[in-house]
Amino acid sequence: MDERVARLQSRILAETGTSDGEISWVRVPGRVNLIGDHTDYNERFVLPMAIDRDCLIASVRRGDDRVRATSLELETSVEVASDGSADPRAVDPVWGRFIAGAVQALTVRGARVPGLELVLSSTVPLGAGLSSSSALSVGAVLALADAAGLAPPPLDIARIALDAEVRATGVPGGLMDQLTALHGRADHALLIDCRSNAIEPLPLPRALSVIAIHSGMERTLAASAYAQRRAACEEAATALGLRALRDASLDAVRDNPIARHVVSENARVLEFADALRSGDTNALGRLMLSSHASLRDDFAVSTPELDLLVELAVECGAYGARLTGAGFGGCIVALAQRNHADDVAAKVALRYRAASRHEPVVFSVRAVDGAGIPS
Ligand code: ADP
Ligand code: MG
To answer: CATH top-level class for 3-193?
Structure first.
């Protein structure tokens, strides 16, 4: 038995005080976005993949009407009423807001959530830009919906989990993270149209490895800057008389760097998808670098540390690299030849540590299937 499964199993039986309660399981992966940052809420294209780091949740029915959750990472528990009456923003510890958000997102839609004990453990790094929050909220929604006797289609699950996250944090995100967590496919990236929510899995070239490297910098400004950029995009769309920047031409946004990033980034996502289809590795790298330049110069969400990591990745032999997960700290993502990926990552980490005095963390990631029951 997987070591994490064993730990969760003994913990949930201890929490419920039973020796053999019937345990339900759900596993939800994090994600890394290969290209297409800040395009999702403009109803344009993104190209993420689900990664082999996930949130695993065990659940057992309780005899009362409480939903209680324990995180093995944070070593705390949270307990809320199962009728959704708890205000998620008032829940403490803060991570419990995702659980309260999930309960409320379901109950406002008419679900009758029963009392449930949850114990969870995640290998997605928290707060790194690899979407540990969506792995947690999609997992919580799946576990709670199942206990309520519901099996909503994936798009509904994604919307409910997004609603849970918005209730928890107040940050209005797009659907990319949730859709990727649900629809990921092994060895594929996903081209997602964020208007129609159509998803096209695209095989990743076998000779390529994907590396995420954390800058060692917390994404402190990310939430407020995200909301501000999002508002700027909506303003730009309204000024052009459009529902969303999806419909803007590059000509129309030439003098607005924020909108220009969104429009040029979208074109890059589609070119990246073409390059995946034709196996043009050099084009993949070039597009990642121009995406990073646009996020740095036009959208202004990079940091000197992320710029340095991207530069070093290329100098150390990656095909390309870019900041990922919205910016302001967190991770870059790089593409490297599979045989050299470990070497590239080690060299980047060494040089980054020396030049920045921050501690990088390397994650070699593989594309995996979306949420499911662990085997
Ligand atoms: P990201 O989604 O990029 O990892 P966020 O700031 O959006 O970063 O979400 C991180 C938050 O999600 C954590 O601070 C915590 O509140 C919650 N979270 C994620 N995974 C866990 C976990 N295993 N246990 C408790 N809370 C978690
Ligand atoms: Mg998140």
So the answer is: alpha beta
pLDDT tens across 346-367, in order? 999 999 999 998 999 999 999 9
| pLDDT value, residue 206 | 94
Which has the closest alpha carbon to 32: 185, 200, 177? 177
Bridge partners of residue 14, in order along the sequence: none
pLDDT of residue 299: 97
The pLDDT score that the predictor gives to residue 18 is 79
> What type of residue is 112?
R
Q: Is the pLDDT of residue 240 over 80?
A: yes
> Ligand 1 pocket check: which of 95, 331, 332 to mutate, most ligand atoms within 8 Å of Cβ?
95
Task: Tell me the pTM.
Answer: 0.95
Distances (CA, A) of 152 to 19, 22, 30, 134, 303: 31, 22, 21, 17, 40
DSSP state, residue 338:
G
How many Å lie between the centroid of ligand 2 and the Cα of residue 297? 24
The dihedrals phi and psi of 195, each to the nearest 5 degrees, come to: -95, -50
User: 3-state SS of 276-313?
Assistant: HHHCCHHHHHHHHHHHHHHHHHCCCCCCHHHHHHHHHH
Span(s) in the chain for CATH 3.30.70.890? 204-365
Q: Report residues whose beta carbon is within 6 angstroms of any ligand 1 atom.
A: 55, 71, 73-74, 94-95, 98, 120, 122, 126-133, 136, 325
The ranges of the chain annotated as CATH 3.30.230.10 are 3-193
Phi, psi values for residue 91, rounded to 5°: -80, 140
CATH number attached to the domain at 204-365: 3.30.70.890
